Automatic annotation (TrEMBL):
Species the sequence originates in: Mizuhopecten yessoensis
Subcellular localization(s) per the UniProt record: Late endosome membrane; Lysosome membrane
Protein name, as recorded: Vacuolar protein sorting-associated protein 16 homolog
Location of the Vps16 C-terminal domain: 508-821
Keyword Electron transport attached: no
Signal peptide: none
Family statement drawn from the similarity comment of this UniProt entry: Belongs to the VPS16 family.
CC terms in the record's Gene Ontology section: CORVET complex; HOPS complex; late endosome membrane; lysosomal membrane
Length: 829
């Protein structure tokens, strides 16, 4: 009978299902252990301190053992640190051990140490009396009560920021009980001081929150907060259980247990009942003062879940929970709910009975409701036979519906297959449908990965059709990181196994795997794994971290990423002596040229040192020439240029030696002229200097420079012509043109006059130019009519065409004249 194991509690029923026969059966007596079990069907940690139970003084260290929920051992270790006050599990299934000095040590379920942090200096100095590990809005939090009766709290073990809560007024001894409440996204502590309750926060505020009750209370000696933080259970010194709202504004129930003995454990079963445990006796109390009594053969440990309570004993692991309403509708004796009718119809159908048709006819208008009830009830069942029976009933009902969407049914089947798989005793995660919905499938897969059950995790991803990037690829990466930590296999074997398994799997970073190998001290394995990493940007930084700089440089060069090459080069430069560094990059042309380019813009002195190291005298001299421009004093600049001359001389570059020597002379000339004329000349070229001197009417110094530096005559004439034109020295320009036959031709003088728009001066030179150049010169100064006449005098139709090309719309008369001239020339032929 489906309801045989149901126990009534007021208007509802509670049921106790066996999850496992414990694998530890004869080896463990829970009465001798401190027990810490993780929620959501998580692992169980047992702490045994023989020194406390031995009749004679022994020096053995305590042992911590971690089991699955089925009682199969996962790991074990000797505890070699301080006195443990409390053990508990984080929401990521890390074991948290809180010591009396306030230090919190975190381990994974295989008891590999992860991290450690403290609860503050005061907790360390005065010792911790008690501790609470709780779920906060930020993750997993820890609160400690010190021997000075102060409470320190952190809201997240991943980001431990310690806050001291307000002090309870007049508290002279340890509180009789206390708990952490999460209200309005803030963690507060509810502290019992005799018959008063104080709610304290980290802002220094406290409130007296004592509930209104008919019971005479001297002390609150136990308290328990519901999973959803909305309800609170209080146990008084007189044996009364108060069931209240968490803000203590409402008292729903006052239940007298008729015993003053304090229960070993007090906690909630979902949100519908409170469970109290005294040794082998367990009492379940409802909000209407109804109660259920359970007796056990041996002491048991309770674990609070969001939808029930797990009961761990020496031989069994059970789950106590409220019978869901939908299950009650289907299986309750005499139920006429659609789901109950459909379930009976399915049973009769499989017996071959005609009653199936009668049941279906009774609910034909409510068939969809019936199907949904059966599907939903299947999710709450722990026994697979009942799951199958309910799903068969749902399938049977669907046959009579034409437009029913199969999505709900398919999703439930998928969820139940996953749940049943992880519930298997070899895996030992007795999670419920409600818990899995809250936890999410992604977290469930992560928990399988934490247990090193990579194959099952991948199978689940494939079954649920999770994209490889989020599923199989990610799990394979975790597997590879685990694989490289195996000390019983050599590097070559592991590298080959990882490469064969992963191949080119998208989303897998060989760099991350190599980092794990490096953390384990397996540098050679890390290098081998990096060979499979296609992204140089990932390879190179890790190679540098391993001090494999030459290999990193080679990989960076192969990638063609100049930024990556620069990254390696600069690290090499910082880590090595200059000489060794230059030798290292000499045989790498790309790296060498990139480094030279870097130095040219960022560190010219280093570039000069590099050329010196290589006896590249010409480039070294070039560096010195460039550097000379940074010298402010003339003497320093000349000295630097002399050093450059010496380098050019060693390179047997006579031209460069001469040019550098001339530059030194020019600088000295420029300084003297600056002093003489009080005008700037430094850093001008030779031509610029001569040009400026002529413009400024300093002809004698300009002539001296011409002679000193042997400026070619033709070049000097060009400089002097243009300088005189700019200075407006037209008379001097004319005298200069008549001083001798101009090596640049008179046309150049016309051009200078044209540039400065002096037509009258230009006409003087045009009168002296040869006849065949007159037309071009006249056109340069815009004298198109005179140019046409000159062309006609030259009997040149080609020159007339040239003038014609320069004519515009305003030159209509001139165009007609030119055409007439062309006709005359044509007639003469």
């Amino acid at each position: 009978m489906a309801t045989a194991d149901w126990n009534p509690l007021g208007d509802v029923y509670f049921k106790k299902n066996e999850l496992y026969a414990m694998g530890w059966s004869d080896m463990i007596d829970l009465d001798k252990f401190t027990v810490a079990a993780a929620p959501y069907g998580g692992p169980i940690a047992l702490y045994r301190d023989d020194s406390k139970t031995a009749r004679v003084q022994v020096s053995t260290k305590p042992i911590i053992t971690v089991f699955t929920a089925a009682g199969n051992q996962i790991s074990q270790m000797r505890w070699s640190s301080g006195q443990v006050v409390k053990m508990g599990w984080s929401n990521t299934e890390d074991l948290l051990c809180v010591q009396d000095d306030g230090m919190v040590l975190s381990y994974d379920m295989f008891l590999n140490f992860k991290r450690m942090f403290g609860m503050g200096q005061e907790a360390k100095d005065v010792k911790v009396l008690d501790c609470e590990i709780f779920n906060s809005f930020q993750g997993t939090g820890i609160a400690v009560l010190t021997s000075t009766y102060r409470i320190f709290i952190i809201n997240s073990v991943d980001d431990p920021r310690i806050r001291r809560l307000a002090e309870v007024p007049g508290l002279q001894s340890a509180p009789s009980s206390w708990a952490v409440l999460n209200l309005d996204r803030q963690s507060r502590a509810l502290v019992a001081k005799g018959n008063e309750l104080f709610l304290i926060d980290h802002g220094g505020q406290y409130q007296n929150q004592t509930p209104q009750t008919n019971t005479e209370v001297k002390e609150y000696i136990k308290m328990a907060l519901s999973f959803n933080n909305k309800f609170l259970a209080l146990y008084t010194d007189s044996g009364v259980i108060l069931i209240c709202s968490s803000d203590l504004q409402k008292v729903y129930c006052e239940f007298n247990t008729k015993t003053e003995a304090c229960p070993h454990q007090l906690m909630w079963c979902g949100i519908g009942a409170v469970v109290a445990m005294w040794g082998t006796l367990m009492v379940v109390v409802g909000p209407q003062k109804d109660w259920i009594r359970y007796n056990f053969e041996s002491p048991a440990h309770l674990v609070q879940e969001m939808d029930g309570t797990r009961i761990i004993s020496n031989y069994q692991h059970e789950f106590l929970h409220k019978v869901p309403e939908v299950t009650e509708h289907i299986f309750k004796i005499g139920s006429m709910e659609p789901g109950a009718m459909l379930y009976e119809a399915s049973r009769e159908f499989h017996k071959g009975s005609q009653k199936a048709d009668e049941y279906i006819r009774m609910i034909k208008d409510k068939l969809e409701v019936a199907v949904n009830q059966c599907i939903k009830a299947a999710g709450f069942e722990i026994e697979t036979d009942k799951q199958k029976a309910l799903l068969r009933a749902a399938t049977f009902g669907k046959c009579f519906l034409t437009d029913y969407s199969p999505e709900t049914f398919v999703n439930m089947c998928q969820m139940l297959r996953v749940i049943n798989q992880v519930r298997h005793h070899k895996i030992g995660i007795p999670i419920t449908y409600t818990q899995l919905e809250h936890l999410s499938m992604a977290v469930m897969i992560d928990r399988l990965v934490l247990r090193k059950m990579f194959h099952l995790a991948i199978k689940l991803c494939q079954y649920l059709k999770i994209p490889d990037q989020e599923g199989a690829s990610r799990i394979l990466a975790h597997w590879a990181c685990y694989k490289v930590k195996q000390k019983n296999e050599d590097d070559e074997t592991i590298a080959r196994a990882v490469a064969q398994k992963l191949g080119d799997t998208p989303g897998v970073s060989y760099c991350d795997i190599a980092s794990q190998a490096l953390e384990c001290g397996r540098t050679d394995l890390a290098i081998r794994l990096l060979d499979f990493e296609p992204r140089a940007a990932q390879q190179v930084p890790l190679l540098m971290k391993m001090s494999k700089d030459q290999l990193a440089l080679s990989k960076a060069i192969e990638s063609g990423d100049t930024d990556l090459v620069y990254t390696v080069l600069l690290k090499l430069k910082n880590d090595m002596k200059d000489g060794d560094f230059f030798m290292a990059i000499r045989n790498m042309p790309i790296a060498y040229s990139l480094f030279i380019q870097y130095c040219r813009h960022q560190n010219p002195q280093m570039m000069e040192d590099l050329y010196y190291q290589e006896d590249n005298f010409v480039e070294e001299a070039n560096c010195k020439v460039v550097k000379s421009f940074d010298d402010e004093r003339l003497e320093d600049r000349c000295e630097t240029l002399k050093q450059a001359m010496n380098c050019y001389a060693r390179a047997k570059n006579e031209f460069a030696v001469k040019q550098t020597d001339d530059q030194i002379k020019l600088l000295k000339y420029q300084r003297r002229m600056e002093e003489e004329f009080n005008r700037p000349y430094m850093d001008l070229s030779l031509h610029q200097t001569i040009y400026r001197l002529i413009v400024e009417n300093s002809h004698k110094p300009a002539e001296q420079l011409r002679k000193e530096f042997k400026v070619p005559e033709r070049r000097y004439w060009w400089l002097r012509m243009h300088a005189l034109g700019e200075a407006g020295e037209w008379a001097e320009l004319e005298r200069f043109s008549k001083s001798k036959k101009p090596p640049v031709g008179l046309e150049a003088f016309v051009e200078v006059c044209s540039k400065h728009k002096n037509v009258a001066e230009a006409m003087k030179y045009i009168a002296r130019v040869q006849q065949d150049q007159k037309v071009k010169c006249l056109l340069k100064i815009g004298q198109k009519k005179s140019a046409a006449e000159a062309a006609f005098e030259n009997h040149s139709e080609e020159e007339l065409n040239l003038v014609l090309q320069k004519c515009g719309a305003a030159d209509k008369q001139l165009v007609e004249n030119i055409r007439a001239m062309k006709q005359q020339l044509g007639g003469r032929r």
